[in-house]
Write a structure and sequence with these properties.
The complex is a heterodimer of chains A (about 120) and B (about 120). Chain A is mostly helical. Chain A has a single domain (about 20-125), classed as 3 helical TM bundles of succinate and fumarate reductases (Up-down Bundle). In chain A, about 75% of the residues lie in helices and about 0% in strands. Chain A contains 4 helices and no strands. Chain A has helices at about 20-50, 50-60, 65-90, 100-125. Chain A is elongated and about 65 Å long. The N and C termini of chain A lie far apart (about 60 Å). Chain B has a single domain (about 15-120), classed as Fumarate reductase/succinate dehydrogenase, transmembrane subunit (3 helical TM bundles of succinate and fumarate reductases), CATH 1.20.1300.10. In chain B, α1 (about 10-40) crosses α3 (about 55-85) and α3 packs antiparallel against α5. Classes of the chains: A mainly alpha (about 120), B mainly alpha (about 120). The interface of A and B includes residues 9, 42, 46, 48 and 82 of A.
Chain lengths: ~120, ~120
């Protein structure tokens, strides 16, 4: 079937990514993490609203070190996804579409997400 | 070549708009729930149920979970069509991607049904 060599896209594994590209792929990764993590959150929500005993069980569950770490991880992913999403909405309204603007917006996104992650850590522990 | 038969609306522009509208709904819902938790340090079962059982909050939760289903469908579809394709997965890419989308949509259906049960049985 192959009659001639088709052009191949850039090899993404050998590519030096600029910062806006890294914040973009992280936005995607955080979204997939939230998709998977939602099962854990719904399980805990269901338990906490089922009965007073279930509520106590859910509170105890969130006291376990692993659960605290998972909660912190999900809050970090949520914070990042939220901030990067807001950046996206700004881009949709033509803010930060220059090269310098995109770099600055990416830097702000990372700084804001790190601050939110630290605050989430303080909240969880 | 990737067809868009499994995208949410089969229209890039509609998907684009739904993605953004649902994002705003989810952002507001997140702020309300986390804001409530932060402002209620001495949370107990009664207060927690009361918070979720109000009609406005129930409707908001329902809206949020429907927004989430649309948002995640579009997001997971975008990820799937960008990475699960012939260049990385060979000729079976379309089969893999179809299976991937069925799993994603199935999981989202469970999320929606489960959430509605949680919020409306209170």
């Amino acid at each position: 079937m192959k009659t001639r060599e088709r052009p191949v896209n850039l090899d993404l594994t050998k590519f030096s990514f600029p910062l806006p590209a890294l914040t973009s792929i992280t936005h995607r990764i955080s979204g997939v993490i939230l998709f998977v993590g939602l099962a854990f959150l719904l399980y805990a929500l269901n338990l906490s609203l089922s009965s007073p005993t279930g509520y106590a069980d859910a509170v105890a569950l969130f006291d376990a070190p692993l659960a605290k770490f998972v909660t912190w991880g999900l809050l970090t992913a949520l914070g990042y996804h939220l901030v990067a999403g807001i950046k996206h909405l700004f881009l949709d309204f033509d803010f930060g579409e220059t090269l310098q603007g995109a770099r600055l917006a990416s830097q702000i996104t990372i700084v804001a997400a790190v601050i939110l992650s630290i605050l989430a850590g303080v909240w969880v522990w | 070549m990737v067809t868009n038969a499994t995208s949410l609306t089969r229209s890039g522009l509609s998907d684009f708009i739904i993605q953004r509208v649902s994002a705003v709904i989810l952002a507001l819902y997140t702020l309300v729930v986390i804001g409530f938790l932060l402002m209620t340090p001495e949370l107990d079962y009664g207060t927690w149920v009361e918070f979720h059982a109000g009609t406005v909050m129930r409707l908001f939760s329902t809206l949020a979970v429907l927004a989430l289903a649309a948002h995640a469908w579009i997001g997971m579809w975008t990820v799937g069509t960008d990475y699960v394709r012939e260049h990385y997965f060979g000729q079976r890419a379309t089969v893999f991607r179809s299976i991937y989308m069925v799993i994603c949509v199935g999981v989202l259906f469970v999320f929606v049904a489960w959430s509605l049960q949680i919020f409306w049985r209170l």
